[in-house]
Specification:
The strands form two sheets. The protein has an eight-stranded mixed beta sheet with strand order 8-9-10-7-11-12-13-14, with helices on one face. It has a six-stranded parallel beta sheet with strand order 3-2-1-4-5-6. By secondary structure, it is of the alpha/beta class. It has nine helices and 14 strands. Strand 2, helix 2 and strand 3 form a beta-alpha-beta unit.
Length: about 325
Amino acid sequence: MTEEIRWGVVGPGRIAEKVVADFAAVEGALVVAVASRSADRARDFADRHGIERAHGSYAEILADPDVDVLYVATPHPQHHAIDLGAIAAGKALLVEKAFTATVAGAREVVDAARAADVFVMEAMWTRFQPAVVRLRELIADGAIGEVRSVQADLGVQREFDATDRLFAKELGGGALLDLGVYVVSFAQMLLGDPDTVTATGSLFDNGVEAEASLLLGYADGRSATLMTSLHNALPGQARVFGTAGWVDVLPRFHHPATIVLHRVGAEPEEITLPALASGYSHELIEVTECLRAGRTESAVMPLADTLAVQDVLEQAAAQLGVTFAEDPAVL
């Protein structure tokens, strides 16, 4: 690994625009290349962000010898093939959530990464937000006793548009993979892997999820109640209940600045910890530091957690009558 970690961006879309801006706050990391299946789109992105090389195919950036790690921001079903190609090329990966379109695809990527000793992490920025880090510290210290339940919601009101990736089934569109991944990952982070998943919701006319409510059950009686929607706006708040109090994670919980600790018999304690830059910097720092240390997984966002979340999402989708598929032809 070179002294400076050299990054490449795969898929110069909406989320990549936001994430790339945060590299300015990451010491020792430099974006040196971007790839799109449109050479013009890659060059436009490169010119606007001061990136040296623009590749007109994903295969080209996988073969670029001057890239250490790839940030994969293509639609969900394209992650699987790109990830496997990158791992075969020895390149580390930060992969946007949802990690893949299917559990089988996620397992194949994880198995390949572990076999090759290549670093891979899901880009779940929530886990690295300073306020969420503090939340986990408080829980570990017993501030609210034993955590028994989690509530979380995340939804936006979007007019259905068949031409938008968010609503395109072949691109993994729908509420679950785009927004539901946040509520499920948050609950799994605090409660672990559920024993049961129960889902209800509705679909748009083309068969993708408009909204979903999930109940995660645990054999010892713990639970998580989760909501996600592209049909209507939701507050974006989370609440963590323990035997000695609770914590409110103020909107929007997936990148919060403030949490409020409620201990039984005590006044509420408001804790504000703003993110660095736009908040994506924290996951970029994690990857950069892991690579410098020679680690192949993040302790904060381990691959086992990614697999568990992917499994919950797939179970929920199946109960709504939705199936997803990987795109093997992306390269």
